[in-house]
Amino acid sequence: MPRLTGTTVLLTGATGSIGAAIARELACDGARVLLHYRTDEDKAQALAHEIGQGAIAIRADLADPAGPTALWDTALAQAGRIDALINNAGILTPSSIDDPLEQWHRVWRGDLQVNLIAAADLCRAAIRHFCATGGGKIVNMASRAAQGGYRAEAMSYGATKAALVNMTQSIARGFGARGVTAVAIAPGWVKTAMSDAYVRDHGAAAALSGIPIGRMADPAEIAELVAFVLRPGQVSLSGAVLDVNGASQMR
From the candidates 37, 150, 157, 198, which is the catalytic residue? Predict the structure, then answer.
């Protein structure tokens, strides 16, 4: 029997490269996946149809402060019970210290809302639900950017991801006794539309020069790791930060 049979998972950012790969992997492992999307309904519905297992697509705008709670409430009402939350949605908005202050603030507020506050609101709802239902798992998609600083034009992204790691470990420490586990996954470069755009603008060498294995991670690698973390037997991983960066950054 697939290892995640009977498990219902809420996955944010499900229509992106990494999100779709995670959805497919979880469904292959028997899970029912609740697919969050923001704008591309056709893509979300097609993914739900493709993976089956009772998957449904749910629209929510995580940039709206009310969006995360509305997403959780809708997902729970439709599923009845949620066993795991994967905070995969995220944005990177370039900025410069030379930007007008209003624009600087807009970028930081936007990245904070989507990358951290939305994840925090969903974690809050999930923890409350898990404590009432006997436990559950949280996976937060962080980044290599969370450790050791990041590019000057993406400081808001790195800061939010660092805070997401800390929040994950606080959840693991604070709620483990109540059956809640939390793990952060910290990818380096992953082959996605975002990385393809960076390569187009800066060249492959700029992205790959610091990666000893000489290539980006495939989204399927991240998906396999997420599915592994969600296995029932993987309880002692709680609090871990799992680096997936081709040895480009080691702690």
Answer: 157
